[in-house]
Amino acid sequence: MTPKGLRVSLVPWDKDLSPDTPSPYEDWPDGDREEPRGLGRYLVEVTDAAGIAAVVGMVSWHLERYGPTPGSHAWNIGIGLIEAVRGHGIGSVAQRLLAEWLLDTTYVDRIEASTDVENIGEQRALERAGFTQEGVLRSAQERADGRHDLFGYSFLRDDLDV
Ligand SMILES: CC(C)(COP(=O)(O)OP(=O)(O)OC[C@H]1O[C@@H](n2cnc3c(N)ncnc32)[C@H](O)[C@@H]1OP(=O)(O)O)[C@@H](O)C(=O)NCCC(=O)NCCS
Question: Which atom of ligand 1 lies nearest, measured to the CA of 82?
């Protein structure tokens, strides 16, 4: 799954280093609302064989609750890469790294991701990262261009052993 000759790593979030990752999937009308607790971001960094590193995108996570107790919590993750590096396997590795880090450092057993039913690239990236498609989330997301149907995906702690 690792892109040939490159190492992909997640490094601490820094607003000044955050690249522009233009995408029709990230046009949010209400981005200025207060962020809930349980939300975070990493930058995605790629290092070549000569040790040259470049920030190529970002990943994020927020908490989902399926009940009032911690046993019903899940992390939902998202990603955006700069256009120049898309389609080389970096998105798969970065999302797998984030899922493993969240499982390793928190009590949560379920990692989720969702993407537009039209976003074939992200669907392939999630499946290569080991996520399982669970079904269609009808009209789940409103963005500036209207409401969107999503495919829901999950990666469970038990999936680490598969
Ligand atoms: C989605 C995204 C994170 C995926 O990362 P990536 O590094 O480009 O993805 P990968 O190279 O790991 O895998 C992409 C796979 O989808 C395929 N793919 C990419 N775009 C495609 C398209 N438009 N149609 C069909 N397949 C496509 C690639 O060929 C590859 O297939 P493979 O596994 O058979 O080789 C990245 O493309 C991106 O940032 N896109 C814009 C933002 C976005 O859509 N974010 C997700 C919102 S939910």
Answer: 39
Query: What residue segments make up the domains of the chain, in order of their start?
Result: 7-161
Specify the CATH class of 7-161 in words: alpha beta
Whether the predicted pLDDT of 34 surpasses 70: no
* Res 28 pLDDT > 80: no
Q: Which residues line ligand 1 (CB under 6 A)?
A: 21, 23, 25, 78-81, 86-92, 115, 119-122, 124-125, 128
User: In the chain, which ranges are continuous DSSP H helix?
Assistant: 90-105, 120-128
Query: Please, which pLDDT band fits residue 47 given cuts at 50, 70 and 90?
Result: very high
Report the separation in Å between the CA atom of 157 and the middle of ligand 1, taken as the mean of its atom positions: 24
Backbone φ and ψ for 100, nearest 5 degrees, come out as: -65, -40
pTM, full prediction? 0.86
